[in-house]
Amino acid sequence: MTVVETSDLTKDYALNGITVNALRGVSLSFQAGEFAAVAGPSGSGKSTFLHLVGCLDVPTAGSIAVGGIDVAALSRKELALLRRRSIGFIFQAYNLIPVLTSLENVSLPLVLLGHGKAEAREMAERALAEVGLGDMTGRRPKEMSGGQQQRVAIARALVKKPALILADEPTANLDSKTGREVLEIMLGLNRSEGTTFIFSTHDRMVMDFARRLVELRDGRIESETLR
Q1: Strands of 69-70's sheet, edge to edge?
Q2: Burial class, 79, CB count within 10 angstroms (exposed 0-12 / middle 13-18 / buried 19+)
Q3: Whole-angstrom distance between the N-terminal and C-terminal Cα of the chain?
Q4: Residues pairing with 90 in the sheet
Q5: Average pLDDT of the segment spanning 10-39
């Protein structure tokens, strides 16, 4: 099953009166269960690609389908619902809510989807246990290491069982040992849950973990490797 498909995806930005071509006609499709990385140097368009696929931005031209749904046909409310239900996000800055515990951070997406508090708590506890943080449910982000915070972010992304998880430079703020541990957790969850992962990265370790590597340069596909 095709989870994501882009066709001639183009994104231009205006910067100080100059048009910047962030993406120039990128056509890609990703199947259910892939563990893929979109890589390239700074300015290659990899993060722009993820933001477009995640419906956080809109393309200048081209099309995006997520789960067979043409996102251009959706209203703002429908896009928000698609993101909430079907897409999990993992960011390099973790983006956890500082005043909430790890359990509350992971429960929040479920509450927003309409789950009862007791059910959301049970599901969040299970997700935190899956990433090795079953004994840290009451800790707030400032009481945790960077690697632990990223594990909470992974649990938050996974708890609603999305078809797709987008990870934007997830190892950028981690040392190599912690980064490897986080990647092993995500790869294990990919294998056990069948969730599709797409990374944007310039980290060679992430590229080595990926079973499919798409390399961008200057907004175009430079190469593609299957492993």
Answers
A1: 18-31, 2-15, 61-66, 69-70
A2: middle
A3: 19
A4: 167
A5: 94
Sign of CA dihedral 86, 65, 216, 41: negative
Rounded-to-integer distance, Cα 133 and Cα 172, Å: 21
Task: Locate 152 and state its tokens.
Answer: 């909470």
- State pTM to two decimals: 0.93
Provide the 8-state DSSP code for 49.
H
Q: Is 170 in contact with 199 (CB distance < 8 Å)?
A: yes
- Give 13's strand partners: 20
Tell me if residue 118 falls in helix, strand or coil.
helix
**Any long-range contacts for 135-143 (C-beta under 8 Å, 24+ apart)?**
136/102, 137/101, 137/102, 137/103, 138/101, 138/102, 138/103, 139/101, 139/102, 140/98, 140/99, 140/100, 140/101, 140/102, 141/94, 141/96, 141/97, 141/98, 141/102, 141/105, 142/98
At 188, give phi and psi (nearest 5°): -65, -40
Q: What is the pLDDT of residue 227?
A: 85
Collapse the DSSP code of 185 into the 3-class scheme (helix H, G, I; strand E, B; otherwise coil) and give the result: helix
16 pLDDT exceeds 90? Answer: no
Mean pLDDT over 99-124 rounds to 95
Using alpha carbons, select from 69, 100, 73 the residue that is nearest to residue 3.
Answer: 69
Residue 99 vs residues 96, 106, 140, 184: alpha-carbon distances, Å: 9, 13, 7, 28
Look at the alpha carbons of 168, 174, 175, 178 in this order and tell me if their dihedral is positive or negative.
negative
Tokens at 34, concatenated: 């892939």
